[in-house]
TrEMBL record:
Coiled-coil region: 90-120, 144-171
Organism listed in the record: Jacana jacana (Wattled jacana)
Domain of life: Eukaryota
GO cellular component, one term: adherens junction
Protein name: SHRM1 protein
InterPro entries: ASD2_dom (IPR014799), Shroom_fam (IPR027685)
Location(s), subcellular: Cytoplasm, Cytoskeleton
Major localization class: cytoplasm
Family designation: Belongs to the shroom family.
Lineage of source species: Eukaryota, Metazoa, Chordata, Craniata, Vertebrata
Gene: Shroom1_0
Amino acid sequence: ELVSSLRSKLRTLWEERQLVLSEARECAGRGEELEAVVRELCKPNEFERYLMFIGDLEKVVSLLLCLSSRLARVQNAMRRIDGNTDAEEKQSLNERHKLLSRQREDAKDLKENLDRRERVVSGILTKYLTEQQLQDYRRFVQDKTSLLIEQKDLEEQIKFFEEQLENLEKSIP
């Protein structure tokens, strides 16, 4: 029953992932349309700023999500430490925790810098875009970020359930 339940949950997650990927493709299409408008209306250096911001948005959000996920896995492993865990493994987990914590703090600084750049890009776009186009831009940035987060969350859940299923199947004679 448990194997069947895990497989069912995985199927549901795979279907959700396909929906999110479809939404991401639609969002990318809106992004391309918006990019064409910005290219047409803005000065080349302003357009370049826009492109850099949009490119860095995905990179920084993905980096933050990845580091947070890794840090959570290390923290879970640290909670499982008991008297039987050897000192070398404890040391390794502590070092990985410190490293990932520092990296996540650096990524948060990158995100703050990205937020400042977003305000600059918004200021530039305000000079050229209509109110509706500005709303489309803001919705695009918000949707892109949300979809990245949702996609990463689904990937993590799928990975978790696949590991659970694999462990369960190995344990069944």
